Amino acid sequence: MTTTVVAAYLSNNSIASNQISEVIHAIHGALKGLAERRRRP
User: Fold this and answer.
1) Which listed site, 7, 10, 35, 41, has its alpha carbon 20 to 30 Å from 27?
2) CB–CB of 29/8 below 8 Å?
3) Residue 16 phi/psi, 5° resolution?
């Protein structure tokens, strides 16, 4: 899922190559947070 979101983001936004890892980290963290919330009763 992270790969799909990152690829879509990068194909529609212009960012410096040194910021790609930050984007990956931010998207992964956001998706992880959503998954954790979904597991809670």
Assistant:
1) 41
2) no
3) -70, 145
**Cα–Cα distance, 2 to 24 (Å, whole number):** 7
Rounded-to-integer distance, Cα 20 and Cα 29, Å: 14
How many domains in the chain? 1
Give the domain extent around 6. 2-39
| DSSP state string for the chain | -HHHHHHHHHHHS---GGGHHHHHHHHHHHHHHHHHHHH--
How confident is the model over 1-41, as pLDDT tens digits?
A: 899 999 999 999 999 999 999 999 999 999 999 998 888 77
